[in-house]
Write a structure and sequence with these properties.
277 residues, mainly beta, seven-stranded antiparallel beta sheet, 24 strands, isomerase
Length: 277
């Protein structure tokens, strides 16, 4: 399990491209037949990927890092399938996972195993995990069951639909909030106008992107912006003081996950485009 430490915004102003990428970009999430995890000290987020191809992959704890015998001893997890059809088995109960299905697994679950239905079209399970203090039931939701919210317009290149899976009026959790944003054809900006939220951190996963495509992800304080070039199936760690917005050279989809003090989706501090520097 890779470990990332928290960074002060004053220090980040002096980072070059290499240092920015080392601190905030997760470049490799999906390794065949392996579980890949990154532990962030920002809100104790764990971000990862399970990519079962020729064999199942088990969710296992790095006991030294998290100080627990099992991964979910003191945690909850949200999982979204961004690949082909697969299954997730939680303590003996198997859930069929179609593309873009979400599964929430609560505190205390013992065994979580990922598998693909077809090795030639393998499932890819994207994981967000945060600390938990209460057990909520395991719940699956398809994208058709998520709460949609239409935002933006083609005239501003940001017409999109936000699908909320794990949130206050959907799948219940202790602190994790998770969903997916699909951009309309012709739109390439996400989360613009942008915002920060001092009470929560956020993680973005960019996917469904062409092999030669890039997203230029904006980060940093509103008056001290920086950018990271992100490619398909790479993730960004976004601390509470940072904006998080991006523009793509090709079409793309992204998954957002949040952890922190509250679960109110609208709790954010808006930043007008003309105030960015």
């Amino acid at each position: 399990m890779e470990i990332r430490y928290a960074a002060h915004p004053t220090d980040v102003k002096s980072y070059d491209t290499t240092r920015l990428r080392q601190e905030f970009l997760i470049e490799k999430l999906f390794v065949q037949d392996e579980l890949t995890l990154t532990y962030s000290h920002v809100d104790r987020f764990i971000v990862g990927g399970a990519f079962p191809v020729s064999k199942p992959v088990k969710l296992e704890a790095d006991t030294h890092t998290i100080g627990a015998a099992t991964f979910l001893e003191r945690r909850e997890i949200g999982i979204i399938n961004i690949g082909g059809r697969g299954t997730i088995t939680v303590d003996g109960t198997t859930y069929d996972m179609e593309p873009k299905d979400c599964l929430y697994v609560g505190l205390g679950a013992q065994d979580v195993v990922f598998a693909s239905a077809d090795a030639s079209q393998s499932a890819k399970f994207y994981l967000n995990s945060t600390p938990a203090h209460k057990t909520y039931p395991t719940v699956k939701a398809a994208i058709s069951e998520a709460s949609p919210n239409n935002l933006g317009a083609l005239t501003t290149n940001n017409e999109r639909t936000i699908y909320r899976y794990i949130h206050t009026n959907g799948i219940q959790s202790c602190q994790l909030v998770m969903g997916m944003t699909l951009l309309k054809p012709g739109s390439n900006w996400n989360t613009m106008p942008c915002h920060t939220h001092n009470r929560r951190s956020e993680v973005y996963l960019y996917f469904d992107m062409a092999a030669d495509g890039n997203v230029f992800h904006l980060m940093g304080e509103p008056q001290e912006t920086r950018h990271l070039v992100v490619r398909n199936e790479q993730a960004i760690l976004s601390p509470s003081w940072s904006i998080h917005s991006g523009v793509g050279t090709t079409s793309y989809t992204f998954i957002w996950g949040m952890g922190g003090e509250n679960q109110i989706f609208e709790d954010m501090d808006a930043v007008a485009p003309q105030d960015l520097k």
